[in-house]
Amino acid sequence: MFINITKSETGGNTGSCAQLVNYLEKENKLVGFSKELWFNESSNIIAPFKVRSSIDANVAKLSKIDGKFYLVNLSPSQKELSYLKERFGEEKVAEKLKEYAIIMMDEYAKNFKRKGVTSNRDLLWFGKVEKFRYYSYKDKQVKDGSKKAGDRKEGLQYHIQIIVSRKDITNSIKLSPQNTSRGKNQVHSQKMGQFDRFAFKRSGEDVFDESFGFERSYQNSLAYSNAVKKGDRSTNIKYAGVGKLVSQFAVLASNAGEIIQEIDRHAFRHRSSADSIRSVVKILNNLHWYLKRRRLLRHQRLPSFLRGLIWGHRVATRLTRKRRRY
After folding, report:
1. Three state DSSP letters for 182-216
2. Higher pLDDT, 189 or 155
3. Residue 159 contacts residue 134 (beta carbons within 8 Å)
4. What is the mean pLDDT of the chain?
5. CB neighbours of 191 closer than 8 A, spacing ≥ 6?
6. Cβ atoms of 93 and 81 closer than 8 Å
7. What DSSP string describes 1-39?
8. pLDDT tens digit string along 182-216?
9. Who has greater pLDDT, 313 or 164?
10. What is the rounded CA–CA span in Å between residue 58 and residue 101?
11. At what angle do helices 78-88 and 93-111 cross, to 10 degrees?
């Protein structure tokens, strides 16, 4: 699931949203395809002029240079779209994504932790389903000459574009997802409505999985990819090691997060990063060999939780001195 929040796809967001609304109407101008109207929780048949006039009027006490709206992009992966198609049928994919978008706007509102802003009903927002994506000059296929910029991409490309006002539905509270303040004055930061972008993106996976019963592999989770890309060496080793364990012992797939927490409790007591790395490797190696010996796949026992990561690491350290690279 790719989730992004930007100012606009057509330039800035300090003026009218008319240009953005017009741009997002592009698929409705195609011949031979049914039109997709705008939606929110209260209606599925909102006209573009209503979107433009509502957002442009909800700007009380905003200066000329203040952002007036933001664009939220919800783009499911090919696996997620294929799952929706298989389970509900392609004709229902757009409807299910609209349901998903409404819940995600609940998450968007809650993320600000502002009094009076607790659900999508407290926001002024409008969503639009788009069915197609197009190759750009940045794509590998365009660079190698196999595709031309502007060609339509193959496969299911459904995604949601949401325009949300900077002000809440009462036109009195400023809400900016660009405010990620974590200053010393926590009370002031909360008053201004600090926004945790990573938590919002992470909630996108959780909402999708819970809403549609999608079983996400650990290696395809945002937490895993983010840790591997941005973490230090010990973090990379930890996530890669747990990923290998989960791939080998499938019954642990739903427990990956708990395994990470247990490793953190046992391994990161050390001040030295080198000691932490050695400890992580040692725990992963012993955990791997313990599970292999006990043949967890056959017995379907253990967790609770992994008996305190194999009884507080004591039993595990006696099992073997073999080493395995992670």
Report:
1. CCCCHHHHHHHCCCCHHHHHHHHHHHHHHHHCCCC
2. 155
3. no
4. 82
5. none
6. yes
7. -EEEEES-SSS-SSS-SHHHHHHTTGGGGSTTS----BB
8. 555 455 555 555 799 989 999 999 999 999 999 88
9. 164
10. 21
11. 130
Cα-Cα-Cα-Cα dihedral sign, residues 60, 61, 65, 68: negative
Q: pLDDT tens digit string along 78-95?
A: 999 999 999 999 999 999
Distance CA 214, CA 81 (A): 11
- CB–CB of 120/102 below 8 Å? yes
Q: What is the mean pLDDT of residues 57-70?
A: 95
Could you tell me how far CA 288 lies from the centroid of its own chain? Answer: 30
The predicted pLDDT at position 317 comes to 47
Distance CA 188, CA 203 (A): 25
Residue with token string 């930007």 = 6
Please list the residues that pair with 114 across neighbouring strands.
117
Report residue 322's pLDDT band, with 50, 70 and 90 as the boundaries: very low
User: Do residues 99 and 9 touch, judged by C-beta distance below 8 A?
Assistant: no
The closest of 70, 52, 59, 71 to 172, measured between CA atoms, is: 59
Written as one letter, the residue type at 290 is Y
Domains of the chain with bracketed CATH: 2-212 (3.30.930), 218-319 (no CATH)
Q: Alpha helices of the chain — where are they, by DSSP H? A: 18-23, 48-57, 78-88, 93-111, 140-143, 186-192, 197-212, 222-230, 233-248, 256-267, 273-294, 296-299, 306-312, 314-319
pLDDT of residue 221: 77
Categorize the per-residue pLDDT at 227 as very low, low, confident or very high, splitting at 50, 70 and 90: low
For the whole model, what pTM was predicted? 0.75
Instruction: Look up residue 29 and give its two tokens.
Output: 């101008």
Residues 6+ apart with CB under 8 A from 234: 267, 268, 273, 276, 277, 280
Question: Of 229, 218, 292, whose CA–CA distance to 260 is shortest?
Answer: 218
